[in-house]
Amino acid sequence: MPTGLSWTELDRSVDDLRAVLRFRGASLEARSRRRLRVGAGVVLALTLAAIVVPAYLRGALHEEHVGQFLPILPSLYLGFLFLTILTASASGGGRELVPRDQAVAFPVSTTTDHFGALLMAPLNVAWLMQAWALLGLTAYVLGPAHLWASMLPVLVWLALATALAQVAGWLLEWVRRGPHGIWIARGITAAFFLLLAALILTHELTDVLDRSPTVRILLAAAWGAGGSWWSLARFLLEAVLATAVVVVLGAVPARWALHRTQREELRLESGVQPARNNPGSDLVAMLRVDRAAIWRSVPLRRGLVVLAFMPGLVAFSGHLEWRMIVILPGLVVSGGALLFGVNTWCLDGRGALWRDSLPASPNLAFISRVVVLYEVLLFSAGLTILLAALRAGTPTADEVVALVCATVVVAAQVVRASMTWSVRRPFAVDLRSARATPAPPVVMVGYSARLALSTTVTGMVFSGLALLGDWRFTVLLALTMLLWSSYRLARTATAWTNPQVRSRIVAVVAS
Amino acid sequence: MTQGQQSIPRIDVRDLCVRFGSVDAVRGIDLQAHAGRATALLGRNGAGKSTTMRVLAGVIPPTSGDVLVDGIDVRRDPLAVKRTIGYCPDVGGLVPRATPWEHLQLAARLRRLDGWEDRAHDLLERFDLGAAAHRVTAGFSHGMGRRMSVILACFHRPSVLLLDEPFDGVDPVGVEATLEVIADARARGACVLVSTHLRDLAMQACETALVLRGGSTVASLSAAELVGEEGAVAYRALLD
To answer: Which chain A residues are Cβ-neighbours of B89 within 8 angstroms?
Structure first.
């Protein structure tokens, strides 16, 4: 297969990337630009804090946890690579800098698309949080001596792992778009997880992880902290060169993948959906269309599968205790909302105008969206809890109450936030491609950060309440928080019933 | 239908204004359309045709002016207006991941229709969509989508039929079926409003035409005045 990869093309692709970035930037309003600058400043400040604070905290904590974190750092570096591969694979190779339907009029090459996807990869709260965790733990373990030098190998690893993940993502997407690709891709994924499960169950995982080549990153970071400049420089040179090579070579599988037809999307669009009996009520009729919009959308199906299994598998392999499992539903429901919930009216796409012209109360459409959102979130959270429970032992009654309350409360919080954002800031998005997101990537980072923060704090509060030994406090707090979320949700429903507000949303979504 | 019933306007718009932020999309349109008649809304892009149609469909509230559809004030009771009308929007009009049959089931349920299936099958066949009835609409061509939108607008036999760009990108079979739908609606006494760029087709379907420019009405003409070469010249002159 001709790759057509040349210096001229690379040069041109970089120029095109700049042009596309300018195009995206030009479409931002002054307020959005301000928000973007503030957001970038916050990310930079948090990154610096993630490095500096743990390094100097070490002394205050009398280095008591250093021995605990040191042996697991190489595994955590490897875990970062694994999770970025998963993100790139689930999103069909990587996110689009410009949606395909908008870019179709411009000669945007697959190499530009590849570079764009690489740029977008860190615009993801999961990527950012893992990166901060790696930087923070390394700084904590190695201490403040030559801090900048000990961080360099980790920073280069973040870049290299992201580039490697992008290559893996494109390769899997290439396979997926080929003959019998969907089944082959599923087979590869299943084989990987079976292997992982086998390693866990035979207690071999630790031995395998101990032989991880990522030990070199920790060694290089230690060279930096210890002032072994020559060794550090040699590692950095190798790692930077490897990153550059992987970034450039990634354009090849990107081209292979993007030149193939989107088989899974086409299969869903051309397949026959058997007719069902006529719906028995208005709400059921609405729910059917909304559920179809979710389960027949490739990015949503893939996202939901990843969301339903991944956190559960991590909990399963990590042998989490019940107190930690209480925090998991928050992360899962946040992820679920980010698949479509934060811009829920986009499920109607261009049919929004027709749907709003039907003789139904606007409240009915609102209730239908709330119900499908709850369904998806509780289903994913339930599956995660189930997988996590397999190795967590028998919970106490207080832990069960805390887990149930935390799950219901975080779901209510996330549904409330999602519906509010959907009404306040709708976007015209077609969730057809596996690479699509319900809002622009920068907006998604803001949404995901806010959801992750609020649900994690809520999960930690309920986890703490499980220790009190009186489940009534837990239930009381849950009821209070549910009432507050319901009140805020009712206010959003009132805003949606306003014809002016609704017409704006419908016009944007259908445009 | 008696002469008296025909003289009562089913659509009565007076001094309609619609503003989006600082943009005036519609600036004082007056429009009357009657039962058993088809009226065309003509004009260039941005003339205010689709916005007017959306107001009549109860999707956009008017900023000012009076809008009565079948005697119902759109601003006061948009839900009752939605029960009265059948609307084919100018863009899309279909939920991407639902099938035509699922669209029809939803519409039939919300409009309280019984025994609608035979008519739905008949319309799908007439518009050459029978084979695609159970495929999701995301895979439809533009023309297929337009045809399906017309079916959704007319299948419950509304007393006011609003068709926004129904001929756009549609093949001759679809055009013929749409013209039949309009003729059927007129024959049973419905009021039909057709917004389109295609003057020739509009004149085949309608008796009168309203020409809009820059959000205002510039002329109200009979179909005879807009037919043929002379009609084209007259129409062109009204656009600038």
So the answer is: 353-354, 357, 510
Q: Contacts of residue A354 in chain B, CB cutoff 8 Å?
A: 87, 89, 92-95, 103, 149, 152
Q: CB under 8 Å to A117, separation ≥6 — which residues?
A: A88, A93, A94, A95, A96, A97, A166, A169, A254, A435
Task: Give pLDDT, residue A1.
Answer: 44
Q: In chain B, which among 148-177 make CB contacts under 8 A with chain A?
A: 149, 152
Contact A433, A355 (CB under 8 A): no
Residue pLDDT, tens place only, A169-221: 999 999 999 988 889 988 998 898 889 888 888 888 888 888 889 999 999 99
**pLDDT averaged over every residue in chain A:** 89
Interface test with B, best of A354, A355, A430, A432 (most B CBs within 10 A): A354
B182/A77 Cα distance (integer angstroms): 67
Q: Which of A9-23, A30-44, A85-99, B51-65 has the highest mean pLDDT?
A: B51-65
Q: What does the pLDDT look like over A300-316, one tens digit per residue?
A: 888 888 887 878 877 77
| B residues 107..136 contacting A (CB < 8 A) | 107-111, 133-136
* Residues in chain A closer than 8 A to B152 (CB atoms): 354
Interchain CB contacts (distance < 8 Å): A and B: 134
Nearest beta carbon to residue B82 from set A273, A293, A358 = A358
Quickly state the pLDDT bin for A357 (edges 50, 70, 90).
very high
CB contact, 8 Å: B92 with chain A?
Answer: yes
Class of the CATH-defined domain B3-93+159-239: alpha beta
Query: For residues B137 and B145, is the Cβ–Cβ distance under 8 A?
Result: yes
pLDDT band (50, 70, 90) for residue B63: very high
CA A111 from chain center: how many Å? 24
Higher pLDDT among residues A343 and B22, named by residue? A343
Question: Which of A289, A344, A357, A368 has the highest number of chain B CBs within 10 A, making it the mutation to test binding with B?
Answer: A357
Q: What is the mean pLDDT of residues A397-424?
A: 95
- All residues of chain A having their beta carbon less than 8 Å from the beta carbon of residue B139 are 266, 269-270
By Cβ distance, the residue of B57, B93, B138 closest to A432 is B138
Q: Of A445, A444, A446, A413, whose CA–CA distance to A429 is shortest?
A: A444
Distance from CA of B74 to the nearest CA of A (A): 11
Query: What are the residue boundaries of the structural domains of chain B, listed by start?
Result: 3-93+159-239
Q: Is A320 left (phi over 0), alpha (psi -120 to 50) or beta?
A: beta
Residue of chain B minimizing CA distance to A300? B97
Q: What is d(CA A302, CA A105) in angstroms, rounded to the nearest whole number? A: 28
Inter-residue long-range contacts of B110-117, CB under 8 Å, 24+ positions, other chains counted:
B110/A282, B110/A285, B110/A358, B110/A359, B110/A360, B111/A358, B111/A359, B111/B83, B111/B156, B113/B156, B116/B155, B116/B156
What does the block give as tokens for B94?
């279909």
pLDDT at A60 over 80: no
Instruction: Give how far Cα A346 sits from Cα of A163, B138, B187, Å.
Output: 31, 14, 38
pLDDT at A411: 96
Helix (H, G, I), strand (E, B) or coil at A259: coil
Q: Nearest C-alpha of chain B: how many angstroms from A345? A: 11
Three-state DSSP state, A436: coil
Q: Report the distance separating Cα A440 and Cα A249, nearest Å.
A: 27
| 3-class secondary structure, B18 | strand
